[in-house]
Design brief:
By secondary structure, the chain is α+β, with helices and mostly antiparallel strands. The protein has helices at residues 2-13, 19-37, 45-66, 73-80, 87-103, 183-195, and strands spanning 125-133, 136-143, 158-165, 168-176.
Length: 196
C-alpha cells in the first residue's frame, strides 16, 4: 500500500524529470518508507523481568569481586545467595569449589569467574538483550566499564541462562563467548578429570 502511494506521488511530482532522477528519488522514498514501517520488537515483560533480575545480581556481585576476599567471589555468591541458582548449578559449583579448596596449591577446578566468563573482570557489567524461548531466558553479560582497557568485543563475555522456579528467576547455566562447553558441562568434565 505504501509503495503504491509513493509510486502515485512520484508520478505526480516528477512529470518531466529525467528517468534516472525519478528512480533515485523513488529508491530513497522506498528506503525511507521501509525504515518508517520497520518497528523494533519490544521486549516481553518476561524477558524484561529476567534482564532486571540478572542486572540486580551483577550490581551486587561485581563490587564484591573488587574486594579483597579470602576466596573466589563466586564462592561467596554461592553461600550468600544460593536461591538465585538452580539446585543443579549450585550443587555442581559447590563440588568444584570444595575440590579446589582441598587441592592446596594445585588447580583442579575452574580457573575463571563462572558468572562473568573472565579471568580479568571489569568493574561494571550490564545484562542486555534478554530473550525467552521455551521457558529459558538467555541474557548477555557485557563488559560495561568506561575505564576498561580490555579489547571491546562485539558479543557478550557470557550468556546467562535462567528459568523461573516457583515464580522466581534462577541461573541454570552459563555459556561463554570464547566457545567451548557451557558451565555445567565444564564442571562435569572437571569432576570426571578429578576422579581419574
Amino acid at each position: 500500500m505504501a509503495m503504491l502511494q509513493i509510486t502515485r506521488l512520484s508520478a505526480i511530482l516528477f512529470t518531466g524529470v529525467s528517468c534516472k532522477m525519478r528512480y533515485g528519488v523513488l529508491l530513497l522514498c522506498t528506503i525511507f518508507a521501509g525504515i518508517l514501517s520497520a518497528q523494533a520488537v519490544p521486549q516481553s515483560q518476561e524477558s524484561l523481568s529476567c534482564q532486571r533480575f540478572a542486572q540486580k545480581f551483577y550490581d551486587w556481585y561485581v563490587p564484591l569481586m573488587q574486594r579483597q576476599l579470602s576466596g573466589p567471589a563466586s564462592d561467596v555468591a554461592l553461600w550468600r545467595k544460593p536461591t538465585v541458582f538452580s539446585s543443579n548449578l549450585l550443587h555442581a559449583l559447590r563440588i568444584d569449589s570444595e575440590a579446589q579448596a582441598r587441592a592446596k596449591g594445585e588447580l583442579v577446578g575452574l580457573d575463571f569467574d563462572p558468572f562473568l566468563g573472565s579471568q580479568d573482570p571489569a568493574d561494571r557489567y550490564e545484562a542486555r538483550h534478554a530473550t525467552v524461548n521455551g521457558g529459558t531466558c538467555s541474557v548477555g553479560v557485557w563488559r560495561a566499564s568506561p575505564t576498561d582497557t580490555a579489547a571491546k568485543m562485539d558479543k557478550p563475555e557470557a550468556v546467562a541462562e535462567l528459568r523461573q522456579q516457583n515464580g522466581r528467576w534462577q541461573f541454570v547455566n552459563f555459556r561463554y563467548s570464547v566457545g567451548g562447553p557451557d558451565l555445567l558441562h565444564l564442571l562435569a568434565n572437571l569432576r570426571d578429570e578429578r576422579r581419574k
